[in-house]
Amino acid sequence: MSNLPQRFSLESKQVLVTGATGYLGRTMARGLAELGANVLLNGRNSERVEACVADLCGIGLSATPAVFDINDEDAVHRWFSQYGDAPLHGLVNNAYAGSAGSIETAAEEDYRNSYEVTLVSAHRLLRYALPGLRAAVCELGNASVVNIGSMYGLVSPDQRVYENKQVVNPPFYGAAKAALLQWTRYAACEFGKEGIRVNAISPGPFPPEDVQVSNPEFVSILAQKVPMGRVGRAEELQGPLSFLLSDASGFVNGANLVVDGGWTCW
């Protein structure tokens, strides 16, 4: 049996991270690279992806661009066809794009779009990733998929902390994230016997840097709702994600690791 530091290592592992150019995505990707992984950075914008790859490679880490639209099945198919049957040791379904709003202000299309980018894309990516994940199991005995959920897949937002209904964290986001958490359990049960573990992380309040700068009053209100008295820092997702992708979590399957400072404990 390897020792604990070895089990936490991601040395020489290939990990695909979707939404890797965003605030949380690029920080999570850096954490994986710091533990030795070659991170396949996914995004639709080639310039942003290449810039993130250059940033990581510039400090001696390993990263490779993976430019494709996760909502375009043909594009996903083309990318995985090029990747071939090489081992893919980890898949992180992190990408999301959508607006704010409430039930009163939301359009039906908002629900469809949110469901598509959150759940359908995770399904699509896992299916196309299966040859690589299975190759990783043959190589090292296991592979890991981590879906990025949300505290709002577990609880509803307090609309009183928002300025109006147009800027509330939207119901279609929370509903899609709740679906993703249940889909995680289904996938864990289906593929666990193959050595492919599927888990989720549900972040709490991690407002982007621009929001922290432009709206400190809102961030302060959010912090007051957290038992720890502050919002999360992006790097605080690196450890939980790395754990679930590493051999240190070898018997963790179908779990949802909540990283919210205690928000959902009230």
Fold and architecture overview:
The structure is a single chain. The chain has 266 residues and is α/β, with parallel strands linked by helices. Helix 2 crosses helix 9 and helix 5 (108-140) packs parallel to helix 6. The relative contact order is 0.15. It is built from 9 helices and 7 strands. The chain is globular. It has helices at residues 4-8, 23-34, 46-58, 73-83, 108-140, 171-191, 209-214, 216-224, 238-245; strands at 14-17, 38-43, 62-67, 90-93, 143-148, 196-203, 256-259.
Architecture blueprint of SSEs:
Layout: H1 4-8, E1 14-17, H2 23-34, E2 38-43, H3 46-58, E3 62-67, H4 73-83, E4 90-93, H5 108-140, E5 143-148, H6 171-191, E6 196-203, H7 209-214, H8 216-224, H9 238-245, E7 256-259
Parallel strand pairs: 1-2, 1-4, 2-3, 4-5, 5-6, 6-7
Helix pairs in contact: 2-9, 4-5, 5-6
**How many E-type strands?**
7
Total count of helical runs of at least 4 residues: 9
Q: Outline, from the CA principal axes? A: globular
What fraction of the residues are assigned to beta strands by DSSP? Answer: 5-15%
Structural class: alpha/beta
Task: List the keywords.
globular; seven-stranded parallel β-sheet; 266 residues; alpha/beta; 7 strands
Q: Outline of this structure?
A:
With 266 residues, the chain is α/β, with parallel strands linked by helices.
